[in-house]
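Narrative summary of target 7.
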Amino acid sequence: MKAVPLELATDEALCGGKACHLGEALRAKLPVPRGYVLPVALVEALQKKDNDALLELKNLFASFHGQAAARSSGVGEDAKEHSFAGQYLSCMNVRSFPELLRAINTICDSAKAPAVQAYRKQLGLDPVVQMAVVIQEQIRPDCAGVMFTQNPVNGADEIVIEASWGLGKSVVDGAVIPDQYRLSKTGEILSRQSGVKDRQFVTGMHGGVEEQLVPKELVSQFCVKDNMLQKLAALADAVEVRFGVGQDIEWAVAEGQVWLLQKRLITSRMPRQK
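Modeled conformation, tokenized:
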């Protein structure tokens, strides 16, 4: 019952799908925030308040200097046949050990939601979800969003990027009309359309995520500069080289650095939990 460095996550039955994908990305030298995975057995022990498991988690959290992100990594999550995109919850900006314990419980409980259970029944899967949890460095992005390495609407061989200010939650949850960019696979800008980004989600001073109004002059201003678009195109190429064509990528830009937060194959999406 030990936490596993994310780059060593290779066994999906122990670490879940998301952790294994992120581990493979790290081994490929892709820009994934550092982190660990709590294997299924450790998560189960934490829910039973096992003392050894609690001590392991407490020591692990101390290495993050009081700020971390906790993400689901269910067995079967982000698979080719069923991605569970947006179904299991993540908890951003966890600032204390008790908060981290609550975050793990919240992530595990999200697997019991009616939409998830209906989806699992439709796929003929066991209703009981084996859940691992990824603990990562919390990125505080200037902008973030999603990126598709093929056009998800018509299948065109081009990169489609949706972006907004702050955390990617505003794009993923549909809280704003994001900027949209279409790029060729070589990074040429084919089109761009500014959105209406009147709010953003940011990491709160005392933990969690806060919603803020965006200054009026930034609402329709493009949030991704040309040089960052080129870095995102390079990331899209690197992800396809490693994982194959047709990738759905969540990304963030913080202080000029592009980060890969998660990736999965492009699939038809289930309604996301709020």
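The chain has two domains: 4-137, 143-265.
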